[in-house]
Amino acid sequence: MLPTITAFENSPDRGAGLARDMRVRWAFEELGQPYEVRLVSFAAMKEPAHLALHPFGQIPTYEEGDLVLFESGAIVLHLAERHSGLLPDDANGRARAIAWMFAALNTVEPPILEFANARLLESDKPWSKERLPLVVDRVRNRLKQLSDCLGAADWLDGAFSAGDLMMVHGLQRLKPSGLLDEYPGLSAYIARAEARPAYKRAFAAQLAVFAGRTSKG
Questions:
Q1: Which of 26, 98, 109, 145 could disulfide-link 170, Cβ–Cβ 3.0 to 4.6 Å?
Q2: In degrees rounded to 5, what are phi and psi of residue 65?
Q3: 72-82 and 162-171 helices, crossing angle to 10°
Q4: Domains and CATH numbers, the chain
Q5: pLDDT confidence of residue 123
Q6: Beta strand pairing status for 36-40 and 67-70?
């Protein structure tokens, strides 16, 4: 049986590739491994059957035989460790690539998500005008640090790795804000990743779900 992941039946990103199953789809495509997708509704995500797979009622999940995983980072790491292509062969290089995965999830993405929530969910709050600039400053600080580290290199540490995959997907959420325009190196970094054939296949697969839902409704 092929590994099966779950994804939104009706994604709130409207096919923009921001849902976290995109990370797992992209990893599968980079590794050249087949997989299946089971679409779930928001209601089904809160039902016992799905909560048995993901205790927080989110997506994606990963099922293969007796193994069940949740959290996109854990799933991508599992795939990268099982198949060659997303982690370097040498031990030190592998350790650094994994460190960049953790940096993407724990250091760079949190202020980006805070910024997104501040704009989408808190803009009508009386304290929003005072808080938003502080949130933006935190994002800019992380972007400058990352841009300085990347420098003129194509990827974060040698060849493209799972660290780049996770980092790029987190950064993409900022594209509509214009903040990335202040860091041309990071914009070019994202563009290189999006030009990868594996990314294009994964994006097309996720977009097809939204397009199919739209054509039916």
A1: 109
A2: 60, -125
A3: 150
A4: 4-85+198-216 (3.40.30.10), 91-196 (1.20.1050.10)
A5: 67
A6: unpaired
